[in-house]
Amino acid sequence: MASIYFLVFAIAGKIWLKKRKNKRASTPSVNQNTFTLFVAAYKNDIILETAKNLLKLDYPKELFEIHILGDHLSESCIALLKELPIHLHVFNLKESTKAKSLQLGIQKANRLNDYIVILDIDNHVSSSFLREMNQWIVKGSSIYQSIRSPFPQKGEVALLDSVSDSIDHTIFRAGQNALHLSSTLAGSGIVFSKDVYLDYIPQLKAIGGFDKELELMLSKNHLFVHYVPEAKIYDEKVSQHNNFYSQRRRWLSAQLYYAKKGVSDGLKSILSFNINYINKVFHLFILPRLLHVFFILALSVLYLLLKNSTLSIIYLALAAISVLGLVIAIPRAYLSLKLFYSLTTLPLFILNYLKVITRLKGANSHFIHTKHFKQKKKQEL
Question: Which residue ranges form the domains of the chain, and what is each CATH number?
């Protein structure tokens, strides 16, 4: 089922993006909305570069505020941040989570503007980010997901992680909106109306995967997430296999936890045929795409060895459909010899995933931090 899902939503996403490419908002926002930017910053000095980048936003300065939510920052970093025209909130949480930082932001900010933007410590934004987001904000809508593009980074791990992200954008964001379903959240680059932010962020209890918990809460209450690919943010991709392992262990553990929770807590929504909620729960039961294809191919080989050619061919066809859907979802800019060369490292990624599966226990009971590194060469935004 997931194989056909990939293909259908990849095609739908591509068509949606093509139609939207040269189109402005059908109902452009006449008013200039005000924005509060919350940046969750944990134990890393790269927040300095992020803060400086946000100060370059091409939007009236009186209409947005930058709030750095600094958890366990170094004294030297704090001193440098205090020199910038931003709002700095420093704390040392006993049990650090992104959700707790965002909740503290509500308490520490003197006021919240019309819309709140959630950003990560490694996120840079295009100078037009707020202008583009403001252009697409429409009356009656309250949640938007921007596009996350990668910084220019070297290495096969970073390239394949970037491609994976781009597939998500096509299938799980553009494709969803194309078929009138709510976009998935990416963890950052999310924009909320003030009322929705105040209603839902204080309810979060997630240690890992706060975006998964938030998606279930929003879809359960029939709130729709709009995808806005014109509003761009840039983030760092994992560039080392050990970081890939830690990040995916955190993600898969959270996915498994919320898959169980989605069924047990949302039975009423499922029985009432809440399509968006059912769709979100279904996402949580989909294996990571690489594992999905690997296991289907393994089943095809197994049935071939068992001399059941019919089932072997069926699973081989499903693998081919999956791969076709994923290839369609990849932006043309990534289709190069460099990408094909990087595919030779896929066995290492599969081994990492198999290792993750055997060590999921306890991963969602404590905060697992993804290491970030200073970019040697910054993207011109």
Answer: 1-381 (3.90.550.10)
